[in-house]
Design goal:
- 2 copies of one chain form a homodimer.
- With 478 residues, chain A is α/β, with parallel strands linked by helices.
- Chain A folds into 2 domains: 276 residues, 3-Layer(aba) Sandwich (Rossmann fold), CATH 3.40.50.1820; 183 residues, Four Helix Bundle (Hemerythrin (Met), subunit A) (Up-down Bundle).
- The first copy, chain A, has 15 helices and 11 strands.
- In chain A, the strands form 2 sheets. A 9-stranded mixed sheet of chain A has the order 1-2-3-5-4-6-7-10-11, sandwiched between helices.
- The two termini of chain A are 43 Å apart.
Chain lengths: 478, 478
């Protein structure tokens, strides 16, 4: 499961809170932006007749908003909404151009938006966690914005809304436009693998792209070491002394002594490689974890320089090279192999990945990962064990969101970094005059949604220009 | 409630069953058409994670189907699916032109498609009765057709489907295209009042159109008598002897003795006027009930000829004139004022009209009905009393289906009979080059979906031609 779960947006957050109660409204500040924090009473279930509601959190920034301007709406993904607000500077960068109000809506079951409070994560209570419900939440908030927040600002109830999102949030931004074209006039869907589902992509593509990034930014020697390391790791962990060696040299937080722990470690290690490829930005970032510019290159350089032929030394060296990712700031005391993020709802996301959003992934001998076929049945059994449910309708997502047939939809820009493994599940060719694909040659995971940076290449700058042009067109159509 | 509930398609059915079990598949024949009866296991709730399913019934006719031909899919409305199959001859009339397979899907909670068997109508179990769930049911069956039924006929999994529907079924046909444009290539939505909701139409329009039909096909004298009859009826029913008089002369089936009974009678009477206007076809029909050609004219002629000044005689005469509607065949023993149809799920439809599909209706002194304002609060209270629930989200339908803003949708023909009271809630002007309105000047309730008849006027013939042309265009696009 974790193979499929920790690859989405991972953000590390340093928050500075400035809280003051103002009618049920809190102010929150980070960097230069201040948000009004609001809560909407949304139905727990939009699609049956029932009256239960819960408080969905959303953030509003009006720094650049001028009467008549649109709403830029971020459709929150699998984590605390503040992380997305902090890592989507592009919306703020272009807000002044459009006089836009900037809004971030939290996804149900993440952050503070818990339908059943601290009981939200039971299998019974998790059942309302579906993309359809999340989209309906967003529409509910849009209606609320139209009716209440804007009642004093706008002369009528029309209000152009543009949806933005990255990764799963990008899928939601696109799906929102597809399912509710009268609620949002268009969508900027960045690194949105809307086709990363059954029968739509070859499962081996993902790890092949990761491997390609390591080959390009590291060397073939780097990927060869990684490729060879799996067997070494399996052999070393066959003995308790080997386990102990790994536990100590890799500074693992948890107890580490049985086969399950080894599986966890393998998943964690795979995830780190994936995360490094996804966030192989041209400049230092603090996204999933604090990282230098081109972390893959930094990691590979270190790994190759430390190369050894002895199995134990090889693993110890790998552990040292990994500190590029695990301890760039030098403040990490030990490495938890249970998680790669403390800000995202990993257990909750795993539920989604087990039920509605099953994304087939596999590794072959063409990539640097340990070979592992995609086994839908086994995956499903693991899900049943963990949550008591699994995906009983494997083709639901295709039916619900149209699969590869997008020609009847309009006003969506799908942008992908071609160095981002998730691009293999994204829309990378133009579909029509209204559905565009923007491929950022040297981009990684939603590079275009980040704030402008001096190290930005022309590719990402052009992508952002395309977004601005598209939004202008949609507003003119509106 | 009943004011709003008995105005949709009402069909009287004489069925001839020819049942033979053939692997879980029954054959059913009426008129010249034979159907395969099939059942699909559809999820009780499509939008939460759960595994419960129930059997949804659908009918297939392949008389005109040739490999490669499209599916003509009727999106069933609030009743037994056989009624709709029997009253939508247009689909069979044009099936040979397209080599089409004809399919009728039953709406959940009606006919045999009961999610909880004979326990389906409890307030708790009814909660899964929403339009969104019904649409997802249809998509589920379409997928099933693609995968199983057509696996042996088609070379690949592509299959063009055109949705058809009349009245509420027409709303569903249009909404299916709007929400699932990759599942259906286009929709023929006849007499579909998709705008008959809050803040979208003036509530008095409906009864004004009914009155207009009575003025046009009867005379002003006819509507004057009807208009005056309400006060007479109220006065006469103040005494028990008056009640007895009405009970006897109108041949009421039920006990009839208190104020509630009078309210029921008033609603029943209003519904009959509405039904006569809706089904004021140019030729004899057996739709809601068996009726002569132009029933409104026949009724008015009789009523005017029997005119009297005495209150009791006036009501007795009204009762006699009503037999045009209540006893055209001469076989009615008594009149039940609890219902106007034994084939439709009225209690179930009332639930929909109380929750998701609240349609504001009122009468003023400009029409022939008893004056009654639209009182949303009172309506809601009555719903709460009956079902324990009411419409807690009055603007949901507008959010979910886009309200009057249809410009982003495509491939829908909205046809309306301009003599049909429901046309006031329909789309009667072209929206775009892909969303067309076809107004049938002398048409009533989905006249165009009925089989061709020698008495058809050019208006309805032209409408049908437009449908054929549109379907051809959609198929070419596909």
């Amino acid at each position: 499961m974790s193979r499929c779960t920790s690859k989405f947006v991972r953000k590390n957050v340093n928050m500075i809170f400035k809280c003051l109660i103002l009618n049920l409204l809190w102010k929150y500040t980070f960097s230069e932006y201040t948000f009004d924090i609001k809560y909407s009473d949304v139905p727990v279930d939009h699609f049956t007749i029932q009256n239960k509601t819960f408080k969905l959190r959303y953030l509003i920034n009006g720094d650049y908003h001028v009467k008549g301007g649109p709403v830029f709406l971020y459709t929150g993904n699998e984590g605390n909404i503040f992380m997305f607000a902090q890592n989507t500077g592009f919306m703020f960068d272009i807000a002044p151009v459009f006089n836009a109000l900037v809004v971030f809506i939290e996804h149900r079951y993440y952050g503070e938006s818990l339908p059943f409070g601290n009981q939200s994560n039971t299998p019974e209570n998790l059942r309302f966690l579906t993309s359809s419900q999340a989209l309906a939440d967003y529409v509910h908030v849009i209606e609320e914005l139209r009716k209440t927040y804007f009642a004093t600002i706008l002369t009528n109830d029309t209000l152009p809304v543009v949806s933005f999102g990255g990764s799963y949030g990008g899928m939601l931004a696109a799906w929102l436009r597809m399912k509710y074209p009268t609620s949002v006039i268009g969508a900027i869907a960045s690194s949105a693998p809307i086709w990363y589902f059954r029968n739509m992509i070859p499962c081996e593509k993902f790890y092949e792209i990761v491997t390609g990034v390591f080959e390009k930014f590291g060397t073939a020697q780097c990927t060869n070491i990684i490729k060879a390391s799996w067997e070494i790791l399996r052999n070393v962990t066959k003995t308790s002394s080997g386990m102990k060696h790994l536990y100590e040299t890799w500074r693992i937080c948890e107890t580490f002594g049985n086969a399950t722990d080894v599986e966890k470690l393998v998943d964690w290690l795979s995830d780190i490689y994936v995360n490094m490829a996804m966030t192989n930005y041209h400049y230092p970032t603090n996204f999933i974890v604090p990282l230098p510019a081109y972390p893959v290159k930094t990691f590979c350089d270190k790994l190759v320089s430390l190369n050894s032929t002895d199995p134990l030394s090889t693993l110890a060296n790998l552990g040292k090279a990994l500190t590029v990712y695990t301890n760039y700031t030098g403040s990490t005391l030990c490495n938890s192999i249970n998680s790669t993020s403390k800000y995202l709802g990993e257990y909750t996301w795993d539920y989604q990945a087990c039920t509605e959003l099953v994304m087939p992934i596999c590794s072959t001998n063409k990539d640097m990962f340990e070979t592992q076929p995609w086994d839908e049945k086994k995956y499903s059994e693991e899900c049943s064990k963990k949550y008591g449910v699994s995906n009983s309708r494997p083709d639901w997502i295709v039916s619900e969101y149209g699969g590869k047939n997008l020609k009847y939809f309009s006003n969506i820009v799908f942008s992908n970094g071609m160095m981002d493994p998730w691009s293999c599940g994204g829309v990378t060719t133009n579909i029509s005059s209204n559905i565009w694909a923007v491929n950022i040659t040297d981009g990684v995971h939603h590079s275009d949604l980040r704030s402008a940076d001096p190290a930005d290449t022309n590719y990402v700058i052009e992508a952002r220009k395309f977004h601005v042009k598209s939004i202008k067109k949609w507003l003119n159509m509106f």
